[in-house]
Amino acid sequence: RKPVEKVEDVVENAAAKVADALSSHVPGAPGSGTPTVEEVTIPHDPLPPKGEQGTPDTRTPTGAETGAAPTANGQQGAYLTTAQGARLRDTDHSLKAGPRGPVLLQDHHLREKITHFDHERIPERVVHARGTGAHGSFTSYGTAAGLTRAAFLKKDAQTPVFVRFSTVLGSRGSADTVRDTRGFATKFYTDEGTFDLVGNNIPVFFIQDAIKFPDIIHAAKPHPDREIPQAQSAHDTFWDFVSLHTEAQHHTIWNMSDRGIPRSFRTMEGFGVHTFRLINNAGETVLVKFHWKPKLGVHSLTWEEAQLICGVDPDFHRRDLYDAIEAGAYPEWELGLQVFPDTPEETFAGIDLLDPTKIVPEELAEVQPVGRLVLNRTPTNFFAETEQVAFHLGNLPPGIDVTNDPLLQGRLFSYVDTQLTRLAGPNFPQIPINRPHAPVNDMLRDGFHQQAVHAGVAPYRPNSLDGGNPFEAGDAENAFVDVPVRVAEAPKIRANPVSFDDHFSQVRLFWQSMSPVEKEHIIAAYTFELGKCYEQAIKQRQLQCLANVDPLLCEQVAAGLGMPVPEPAQPVTEVTPSPALSQMGQTWPADGRIVGIVIGDEEPDGVASVREALIAAGMVPLIIAPHGGTIGTVTAQRTFATARSVEFDALLLAAAPPPAPDALPARDAKAAAADDVTVDPRVLLMVDEAWRHAKAIGAWGDGASVLDQAGIIGTPGVIATESGPETLDAVERFLGSHRVWQRFSTSMV
Ligand code: HDD
């Protein structure tokens, strides 16, 4: 019998054998067949912690306690550990049988690292997958305090919020500036429970009944065979559905207007769409519609800009929101209410308040400001906050209740339902971003991803074992109020009220409220979108819908498509326009606007002072230079290679940089070689595009010669003066109305 070896001897012998094998190995000569062994990489000692690595936050981004062990935050302690807290010596090499040997199954660290990575993705939202969010706070004016018992609407009440903006149709990685509706979802962490206002930047919806939501979304999403087009409504299935299903026509004309291509999330209105019911302490009720009014006004891109940005900077809106907040140009909105008497008919001025395809023009029911939202903090972690935030229309505080709008009723089901799959199980309200700031004392137990360690033995009511806790609240304790609305005695039926059958009068109302330039844009958008459809019958059917809206609109689109103009199938309705629907005609603060300043190889006069003046006015100056680095006292933030005009709201030229053929792509170098070109073609392209997109362009000093070369001197919104500050003054005036509207030629009246 062999003597039993001691464990230490076995280990020592094995180690010695490995060391021996490694040291005696002689790399083989080429072709000798002997494998070459690279030097063994020796695991190094961990580096000391970095200075900025502090102790982990024990609070969630919204200020609530995380409740989790500090190490759960990751990347903040001194030493790398496994998920179980064991310090790691090496995370770059798998555990192998020798440096060239197979990887061992026992390598727990390898398995943990790869397995976790393999499961990093969660399903994207079935709609509104592409979005971005920010934290902020809502301050109530107290003007709604007489209408609702909701405490967050009492005077001076401050409520933390998280807002997520989104597009509807595109996937998570799709471009921001596509033509689409934008989501505007706000989570108010009120002291009486979370209130989610899940709205859009368009005040009406495609359908009147939630049962049709899968239909409109299947039609609008990419075709099921080839999964194209991405994030677009310019395709056959979308126009097939909306032309057959004419209640969608109102939402569609908003999408075809400039509202479908916002300049920024900061320059969008938001709408709760549905009518809600408020109840006050006396038990009195009113019906209301929620509106968000942006401090900067409502502004849009031009269609060409939007298309260019999709390629040049697909994250344009996301970047814009982050940059504005980080620059201190905090985006702001006023929350407003349109208030209607709560009558049994639930109508106002003949408009059915339960029909989500109808607006109540602001001229008929003024939007009354009730508070101010300021977004002042970007998320710390996109996934944890923006991706995992979960909204639900049923998250209501006492004082706000739903109505019977059939679209709203279906939404009350859909949101929690979709989160169950998206966030895998019923405990997603415990995810930090979703945690209420009001104390939670529910009897929901267990389930996937349960974070709480519930004490007590009696999660049921009534009980005597946990002292009868918890108790039900009454009015005095601010219990939620289900407004006891009378339900009409009626047969069970799958039908809509007759008033829901009017599908065209408000489409015409919108069209008639537009300025000539906005009408031109709408015609161009329909012509583009239908021009992308293949089926003649679909185009014809949509033209028929437009004929029911307005003969001129129909004629012009038909002309663009080269198709016959149909007769209206029903008389075109007389409407009173609502000027509030137009985006033009007012002036707005220029805060947060991006102004590009072109300089040359040397710092031109006036640049530093113009830069300072822009910052002082709350705008963001970006220096555009021939190359990176520092030029005089300023630093180049963009170069001629990285800048495109679409990024800027206005362009200033402080120099006329000459062509630099060596730095140019071949095509531009050829253009620059032309005799009469004395300015870098990339600068000329910027000026040309800025001019086409009706942006203010200013120049001083040598910069004026660029305007000359571009052939735009003397045209509206093109300013050349002797000094930078003087030029800036004139440019700022144009920024107030967003664009140089006169530059869009229009034959419309
Ligand atoms: Fe919806 C997400 C807005 C109708 C079903 N919706 C979602 C989001 C917004 C809206 C802004 C993104 C929330 C976020 O950022 O996480 N939806 C609206 C508006 C509607 C509307 C303004 C009409 C007035 N939605 C609607 C209907 C249904 C849904 C009729 C279903 C019957 N919506 C959903 C959803 C989503 C969603 C499937 C996808 C991801 C999510 O909920 O959390 O449940």
Q: What is the CATH topology descriptor of the largest domain? A: Catalase HpII,  Chain A, domain 1
Shape: globular
* Distinct ligands: CIS-heme D hydroxychlorin gamma-spirolactone
Oligomer classification: single chain
CATH superfamily of the largest domain: Catalase core domain
Q: Strand tally, please?
A: 20
Helix run count: 18
The CATH class of the largest domain is Mainly Beta
Distance between the termini: 109 Å
Secondary structure category: alpha+beta
CATH architecture of the largest domain: Beta Barrel
Uncertain residue segments? 24-37, 41-57, 66-72
Radius of gyration: 31 Å
Catalytic activity: 2 H2O2 = O2 + 2 H2O
Biased composition (Low complexity): 60-72
Cofactor: heme
Keywords: Heme, Hydrogen peroxide, Iron, Metal-binding, Oxidoreductase, Peroxidase
In short:
By secondary structure, the protein is an alpha+beta fold.
What does this structure look like?
- By secondary structure, this protein is of the alpha+beta class.
- It folds into 3 domains: 131-434, Catalase core domain (Catalase HpII,  Chain A, domain 1, Beta Barrel), CATH 2.40.180; 504-581, Up-down Bundle (Hemocyanin, N-terminal domain), CATH 1.20.1370.20; 594-743, Class I glutamine amidotransferase (GATase) domain (Rossmann fold), CATH 3.40.50.880.
- It is 26% helix and 15% strand.
- The protein is built from 18 helices and 20 strands.
- The protein has helices at 7-24, 108-118, 213-220, 236-244, 249-256, 303-312, 316-326, 382-387, 406-422, 505-512, 516-531, 536-549, 551-561, 607-616, 666-673, 681-692, 704-710, 724-736, and strands spanning 131-140, 158-167, 182-190, 193-200, 270-271, 276-279, 285-294, 332-341, 347-348, 351-352, 368-377, 400-401, 594-598, 620-625, 630-631, 634-635, 638-639, 650-653, 696-700, 718-721.
- Strands 1, 2, 3, 4, 5, 6, 7, 8, 11 and 12 form a 10-stranded antiparallel beta sheet that branches.
- Helix 3 packs antiparallel against helix 4 (236-244), helix 4 (236-244) crosses helix 12 and helix 11 (516-531) packs across helix 13.
- The longest helix has 18 residues, at 7-24.
- The radius of gyration is 31 Å and the shape is globular.
- Residues 24-37, 41-57 and 66-72 have low confidence and may be disordered.
- The structure holds CIS-heme D hydroxychlorin gamma-spirolactone.
